[in-house]
Amino acid sequence: MEKQRTISAEELLLGARKESLSRINQSSLRSHGKLWGMDVFSWINPNMSTIGTTIDSFPFSVRWVGNAHDLTSALESQPELMNKLSAALLFDNSIFTLKNEHLLGIENLVGTTSVEEALRMSKIGAKPQSILLFTASGDDAEDAKNEFDRILNVLQGK
């Protein structure tokens, strides 16, 4: 006969706390040091109502590597963001479906179908005093984050 293990209230609370901290860590802006002279940040499941404020608070121009949904949503609700972006690089779509004023307002637009390709493309035209921001949301956010972390570690020689 097999014994069934009961989980104590303390174990349940510890498990819930660990899961909560994991979600907070994944849904907040994280710094990753430097890559090609740029300060690197990631934000998984970014809050669209505060992403504009966050990007605007950066002291340098931003090269944004993200999925089409995040970029489109942010620019639709906060079109002034394009003034702070030196590049927008999609990792989940090779075709941009932005309004013309957004297409014309951002200097460098690149559409790719992988995080690795978008990240490598972000090097083109990168300046030491700039920000590389990676965002991902939706069902594939965790996979995109893992791919970003893996590639970034390789590129940073970790």
Topology record:
Blueprint: H1 9-26, E1 30-35, E2 38-44, H2 51-57, E3 61-66, H3 68-77, E4 85-90, H4 100-105, E5 108-111, H5 115-121, E6 130-136, H6 141-155
Parallel strand pairs: 2-6, 3-4, 3-6, 4-5
Antiparallel strand pairs: 1-2
Walkthrough of the structure:
This protein is α/β, with parallel strands linked by helices and 158 residues long. It has one domain (30-155): Mur ligase, C-terminal domain (Protein-Tyrosine Phosphatase, Chain A). 40% of the residues lie in helices and 23% in strands. It contains 6 helices and 6 strands. It has helices spanning 9-26, 51-57, 68-77, 100-105, 115-121, 141-155; strands at residues 30-35, 38-44, 61-66, 85-90, 108-111, 130-136. The protein has a 6-stranded mixed β-sheet with strand order 1-2-6-3-4-5, with helices on both faces. β3, α3 (68-77) and β4 (85-90) form a beta-alpha-beta unit. The protein starts with 8 loop residues before the first helix and ends with a helix. The model has no long low-confidence stretch (mean pLDDT 84).
